[in-house]
Amino acid sequence: MFFVSDNAAPAADAVLSALARANAGLSAPYGKDEATKRVERKLAEVFEREVAVSLVTTGTAANAIALAQLTAPWKAVICHEEAHVMHDECGAPEFFTNGAKLAGASGLDGKITPDGLTALLDRDFWTPPTHVAPAALTISQATEAGTVYTASEVGALADVAKSRGLRVHMDGARFANAVASANVSPAELTWKAGVDILSFGFTKNGAMAAEAIVVFDTALAADLAERRKRSGHLWSKGRYIAAQIEALLADDLWIAFGRRANASADRLARGLEARGLTLAFPRQANEVFVHLPAPVDAALKAAGGVYYTWSSEAVRPERQGRPGDVFARLIASFETTDAEVDGLLGVVDQALVAA
Amino acid sequence: MFFVSDNAAPAADAVLSALARANAGLSAPYGKDEATKRVERKLAEVFEREVAVSLVTTGTAANAIALAQLTAPWKAVICHEEAHVMHDECGAPEFFTNGAKLAGASGLDGKITPDGLTALLDRDFWTPPTHVAPAALTISQATEAGTVYTASEVGALADVAKSRGLRVHMDGARFANAVASANVSPAELTWKAGVDILSFGFTKNGAMAAEAIVVFDTALAADLAERRKRSGHLWSKGRYIAAQIEALLADDLWIAFGRRANASADRLARGLEARGLTLAFPRQANEVFVHLPAPVDAALKAAGGVYYTWSSEAVRPERQGRPGDVFARLIASFETTDAEVDGLLGVVDQALVAA
Amino acid sequence: MFFVSDNAAPAADAVLSALARANAGLSAPYGKDEATKRVERKLAEVFEREVAVSLVTTGTAANAIALAQLTAPWKAVICHEEAHVMHDECGAPEFFTNGAKLAGASGLDGKITPDGLTALLDRDFWTPPTHVAPAALTISQATEAGTVYTASEVGALADVAKSRGLRVHMDGARFANAVASANVSPAELTWKAGVDILSFGFTKNGAMAAEAIVVFDTALAADLAERRKRSGHLWSKGRYIAAQIEALLADDLWIAFGRRANASADRLARGLEARGLTLAFPRQANEVFVHLPAPVDAALKAAGGVYYTWSSEAVRPERQGRPGDVFARLIASFETTDAEVDGLLGVVDQALVAA
Amino acid sequence: MFFVSDNAAPAADAVLSALARANAGLSAPYGKDEATKRVERKLAEVFEREVAVSLVTTGTAANAIALAQLTAPWKAVICHEEAHVMHDECGAPEFFTNGAKLAGASGLDGKITPDGLTALLDRDFWTPPTHVAPAALTISQATEAGTVYTASEVGALADVAKSRGLRVHMDGARFANAVASANVSPAELTWKAGVDILSFGFTKNGAMAAEAIVVFDTALAADLAERRKRSGHLWSKGRYIAAQIEALLADDLWIAFGRRANASADRLARGLEARGLTLAFPRQANEVFVHLPAPVDAALKAAGGVYYTWSSEAVRPERQGRPGDVFARLIASFETTDAEVDGLLGVVDQALVAA
User: For the Aromatic amino acid beta-eliminating lyase/threonine aldolase domain, which residue ranges apply (chains A, B, C, D) (predicted)?
Assistant: First the structure.
């Protein structure tokens, strides 16, 4: 009952096979290999347009490099106040941007709203050079609350951002789950809605370690190569990153994996709700946030359940837990099985009966 | 009717005279001059203990260098969410700390409370290396809302900070006004209450441009000289900074100036309240925040009044303005006269009668 | 005839097999997995002492993080003036150290000498805070000229460094080749000779992408976790880096690979010298630097030879090429075969006969 | 006999008077005052063209901000290997540029030559993203060896720089001495010869603390305001910097001061040469570098002489001292009198007689 993170899963078999296939013969070092070129072409196809691409191996690197492309050190990046870039990357955005400021916008269910963004930008502390001026908006898709922006929601936020001169970045650590959930094309969910740069994550979705920085407005890609090299993220044997992504893009395997993880999470969410438990956020991707009665939490842990306890200020009043509840985050990966979900639900049943 | 800032005032005569006196003969460059040494000794006397001192010419430099002494780049500094270091220094703290994070605590009247600080530190996003760990607390004294922490309030905040391993910095751009208001010794308001480093401001209080970074725990001063030089703040002719401070420290002129500015602000605040206007924050130092009825604001401006309009989320419910009011910040300096205050109040009278 | 770099080679079969074996079941994310722990223990065994270890995937990251552990931003790192950290990492050391200075020491055959180091440290530009003070020495082992410091040469340099308060780092991108060449234990070539931190490279020696930062003085490891996370080098699925290293450390496979590459380079060097060509540097590890007569260079390229042309100011007078010669760097990897070497020598023969 | 530095001198009377005059009434803070505007107009007049200007108080700040305008963090700035920016600013250029690299070019008499610059740029370590690419050339005028580039020498260097895409900065800490020595207009010595940004120093030439960053290609001034604020160099009471510069620009007082200091240095240099001593560099501005026989050095120190001992690798063979000589740097300021110079020469006479 391992629901702690989608990155606790191994790599998909297709990825391992691809690595083995890639492991033959010599190849040009430092990202000039054929596999990398094929991935670049394939991503252009996936997004239905010319793109600039830079491959790295962690989401932190992808996000921090992407944001550094969009902001000067004396400017600010707006993000949700509970965003991964704000809290979970040990200040990587500040490091890569040489000290730009992250400014948090509040928003229920982990989502920034156009009104919230407008209100924040209307505050009187954005006039340079006394203040830092806002340079970019970054949104997580799926969000840290497991919710998903629709294409029109992305578009509405990007409209506000662009009307104020801000560029738009999307942290797509769980982009596959978002695409599968939103059920629109990758293009519609990104550049067609106004996104300038996407951190396209594969690590949580079947890769060993692979992320693509996808720049839609290729004029924004000018210093990408230098930033990657200078931060130590240019692999000499680039084919081994490319091979992973190639395997996952083939036949839309990445979307299939996203769909599968979402389905497991949906089964879990429905099961928990059917047993009277309250979800803190609507289940839209592969994460389930639930208020567990203490005896249920104890029973799950006794049965070997592994998951994070959580906290959030973005929970709607009607979705708050009761005193004593344990706020839990349960994540399903592409490998999570119905049996695992049902096993967990079975333990919940027993605990509820006993209580 | 110039109430826009205490730094619009000229330097005090005593300061100019001191500069003229200092302007004779050769002197050792780069802070090794006799005037600087005298200031260092005098500050030790003022604070009743050994201190390490570094002289600079702007509050931004003093704050940013001081904070950089207290935090690693991958750590966080807690400040009030409307603090000067957060919003008004164009990211200088981020620049000097090489990208540490400023985390804002809310608090009415511009003041952080022990409970608010505790609650923030109890959030679950401070565990390294995923998260940045908190390294320091900085408080403004007087605050950006013109209020003043009592010595025991400083002590209570420092107690919380130190129990969590945080160091404490005080932004004393208006330290003179705070000391005059709190009516305790400089020692009691700082290191005796737990402050490790003070940015001791003179520029807003009669100097041309002079600020002292005063380090009470001298072990925290290790890299001060390098940070000052590397940021271009080591003057070759250091005597001209020292002379200003020396003139203001003599005979406690700085406290007299602080008291005088506070008194003018008090006269102004009482006058406004007597005329039925609402102060947004209690007047405790040399700043008055008031909700001006629109006709009053218009009349003041027509009469040549100069001041900033303001906004804040730290205003108590009972101190909110009415719709249409202009939220104004009026600052008195050591040079503000009763006649100027009364002149302003006279215009208010006329406007209220006309309305 | 691919002699362009040891990182053009694929990963060793043993490494791929290890990745496949690692790809089973769930495992704790972010470097807390069992494979990482085993590697840490194994490295302690290899170096015959307690060590602190941090795993990353590029030599640039390993070097830059290691150097950042050893220097403040306002200090300097001494390296050979043609060192990889100086010229080939796009300023990564400056990025990770937040702007420390690299200062180049000259030295024939790519090696810094104790006298050269002493002379540089005796220059009059190291007194803080005007000047940056030297904080660390970094040496490459094997060097960028393909030469190898003996254990006593390392010790002599470290003695000078430590007598001046400098810490010592070793860039071991080709540490395996150096150990194989010097024929001493890893411990003797590092900490027993005074090295504080080693960048232990595996990528050029059979890994896909894996480097270990090995800290011998564990007190110097304090911020290692934060630096790795903050720079985006903490893998969520850490087992896949660990597995590579584990496979190469097993049964000293890494030394066997180093020895094999060295032997191929030796065969190549002897063959070239036997044909009258001049080596620019003595062949001591897996790199051969040779002055190719232009017709030989042309013939090799016509035959599909791939290698870098080079330049260096560290060539001894007696090892200079003749006008018109092409200065070539030829690198052998653990996969280079005698047949490949002999094939190249055959082309040289033909070219020399034709000339 | 104080010849240690031109910044040991006090401020000129004209400067002090200007400060006193400026000290009346209120004035707009943060560089929006009238005095600053007048200086900006006056500098446009001095340089016979539109310029963008930013006033700061140290040469280190002026240089570091100017260089940061010209280079990305992953690029390099070429300077003379003994330049002030390289050695005497505690890494300020690296701090302000967020880690760009300074690369030193050699050159006799402290001057870079077009051939030397070309040779350095022809080295093979400038190709991004592996290497840092060169972004700017900075030259000191007068140089650290007290020599002066002629306008045509500046032009020749700028031609090389611009043909390779580099921008050109001039460190004019002693610009007045250079203009007085070269006897051409400020325009001819700067932008007409290809200089993009000048650090125009006043501190060593009669100011208390004042330097102007003068940007000739105003497109390069885009982020100047933010860099100054963020580094703590924006004074709230800007009139006090402007007043100093205004006083020195009036009636070309700055050039008169430069000429006077040069004349004193000339008198000193001729006197020393007439006594058989060897100058290490030709005397062209206000600095004299001389090899003092040890007894002369001892006699001078006994008589209260204060000056720095020096070292340089840029001394021509025919200008080297004899073993045992003390390499001394003697600086004349605008305040140095003939009597002081003759006093020093008198001590030399006595020492030579005694020897």
Answer: 3-292
For residue A17, the surrounding DSSP H or E stretch is: helix A13-22
Residues A55, A179, single domain; the answer is yes
Asked if A11's CB is within 8 angstroms of C234's CB, the reply is no
Residue D57, number of CB atoms within 10 A of its CB: 30
Q: Which residue of A has its CA nearest to B129?
A: A90
User: Could you tell me which chain D residue has the CA closest to the CA of A99?
Assistant: D98
Torsion of CA A40, A45, A51, A55, to 10 degrees: -30
Write out chain A's pLDDT in tens, 355 residues.
Answer: 778 877 778 899 999 999 999 998 878 888 888 999 999 999 999 999 999 999 999 999 999 999 999 999 999 999 999 999 999 999 999 999 999 999 999 999 999 999 999 999 999 889 999 999 999 999 999 999 999 999 999 999 999 999 999 999 999 999 999 999 999 999 999 999 999 999 999 999 999 999 999 999 999 999 999 999 999 999 999 999 999 999 999 999 999 999 999 999 999 999 999 999 999 999 999 999 999 999 999 999 999 999 999 999 999 999 999 999 999 999 999 999 999 999 999 999 999 998 7
Are residues D4 and B29, on separate chains, in Cβ contact within 8 Å? yes
Q: In sequence order, what E strands does chain B have?
A: 52-56, 75-80, 101-105, 133-140, 167-172, 197-201, 211-215, 278-279, 287-292, 308-309, 326-331
Which residues sit opposite B289 in a β-bridge?
B329
User: What is the interface pTM, i.e. ipTM, of the complex?
Assistant: 0.96
User: Which residues are bridge partners to D327 per DSSP?
Assistant: D291
Q: Residues A94, A100: contact at Cβ < 8 Å?
A: yes
Q: D315 and D202 share a domain?
A: no
Contacts of A95 in chain B (CB under 8 A): 73-74, 98-99
Q: Are residues A283 and A185 in the same domain?
A: no
Polymer length in residues for chain D: 355
Kind and range of the H or E element at D5? Answer: none
Residue corresponding to tokens 């009238």: D34
Last residue of a domain, one of B253, B283, B298: B253
DSSP state of D136: E
Supply the range of the domain harboring residue D308.
Answer: 258-354
Give which of B245, B177, B239, B258 is closest to B207, Cα–Cα: B245
Query: Which residue among D19, D28, D231 places its CB closest to the CB of B8?
Result: D28
- Take residue A165 and report the two structure tokens written for it: 């001169």
Beta-carbon contacts of residue B192 (< 8 Å; ≥ 6 apart) = B151
Q: Are residues B295 and B248 in the same domain?
A: no
Instruction: Give the helix, strand, coil percentages of chain B, each rounded to 5.
Output: 45, 15, 35
| Chain C nearest-CA residue for D132 | C90
Cβ contacts of D24 on chain B, cutoff 8 Å: 10
Q: Is A107 exposed, middle or buried (0-12, 13-18, 19+ CB in 10 A)?
A: buried
CA dist B284 and B336 (Å) reads 16
The answer to the question of residue B200 being in a domain is yes
Is the same domain home to D206 and D313? no
For residue C49, is it within any domain?
yes
> Which helix (H) or strand (E) segment is D215 a member of?
strand D211-215
Q: What is the full DSSP assignment across C61-120?
A: HHHHHHHHHH--TTEEEEEETT-HHHHSSTTHHHHHTTSPEEEEEP-GGG---HHHHHHH
In a shared domain, residues A200 and A153:
yes
Q: Decide if D1 is inside a domain.
A: no
Residue C208 sits in the same domain as residue C75:
yes
Return all residues near A142 (Cβ < 8 A) that are at least 6 apart.
A148, A174, A175, A177, A178, A181, A284, A285, A286, A287
Would you call A171 an interface residue with chain C, using a CB distance cutoff of 8 Å? no
Is the entire prediction scored with pTM above 0.95?
A: yes
Burial of A70 (0-12, 13-18, 19+ CB in 10 A): buried
State the sign of the Cα–Cα–Cα–Cα dihedral B178, B184, B190, B194.
Answer: negative
Chain A partners (3+ C-beta pairs within 8 A) = B, C, D
